[in-house]
Amino acid sequence: MFACVNPQLGTFPHEFAGYSVSMEQLRFEERVAIVTGAGGGIGRLHALELARRGARVVVNDLGSATDGTGSSSSVADAVVEEILSAGGEAVANSDSVATPEGGAAIVKTAVDAFGRVDIVVNNAGILRDASFKKTTPDRLDPVIDVHLKGAFNVTRPAWSLMSEQGYGRIINTSSGSGLFGNFGQSNYAAAKMGLIGLTRVLAIEGAKKGIHTNAIAPIARTRMTEGVMGEAADSYLPELVTPVVVYLAHECCDRNGNFYSVGAGKVSRVFIGSTSGFEDAKLCPESIAENIDRIDDANDWTLR
Ligand code: NAI
Q: Is residue 122 lining ligand 1, measured as CB closer than 6 Å?
């Protein structure tokens, strides 16, 4: 029997609500991980935990404000210090994920320091919330650049290495805002749902190369959600997001193309399904109008 340890929260009992945990600890010796946006918030905890479990980690962070303005190399440096002083291995990188050059430099940092890349956690993120009417290009473009293009920019150079070595684990950070919608976040939701499309395609393209790509939609108390969670904030510890990322990053994870909602200690799969629908060889707008309830009926569906 093995003790399931979350260093921030202590040792859990072996049984959670009737489920027992009885496997070996998931370790990452010989693995190299890149975590973007790892200078603070959820990403910092991903980096610390992967390092604690033996991975060599590139701690990337531009050191920007929540709206993406400004930069500082000190936040990535501070997390590397934490890892080194705990006996782990890590290097800092403060390039932006928002450009192809930045993405290439982040991957080069991993190769120069550790010789390979096994894991990419695309986590860097910013917010520029506004109602749709006020979502001008200066609020749209940087959000798409960091979240959606950022994942392309970092993952593409890593993908070549993963393809050659026949192994890789990619975790994209989506959001409930993208999956379900949220007022004032059309820019962010579009970028986050774009990551789901990217995840599904990479899952298909990577399957035969040993590369698995999955996504998470986290909910956690960080500076990004400060003031919007109310009393629930105390339950949404960022430490309760990292275990899912660690699992998805491990070689034992055979899932590919899935996305998981995770927050406050609960993990659930979110999936795409289609209803059994309505068929008519002479389909016309009137037959659709007559059968729209049947078309929409979500009681009978197929997993996609
Ligand atoms: P955070 O603001 O604490 O962390 C984001 C980090 O990304 C910051 O350290 C920031 O400096 C860095 N960053 C921003 N732009 C960057 C760039 N161009 N290149 C490299 N680094 C950059 O926020 P949090 O909450 O930890 O968010 C982490 C991820 O989780 C984000 O992608 C966010 O959208 C996502 N998320 C968070 C939720 C939550 O409840 N906290 C909900 C849903 C998604």
A: no
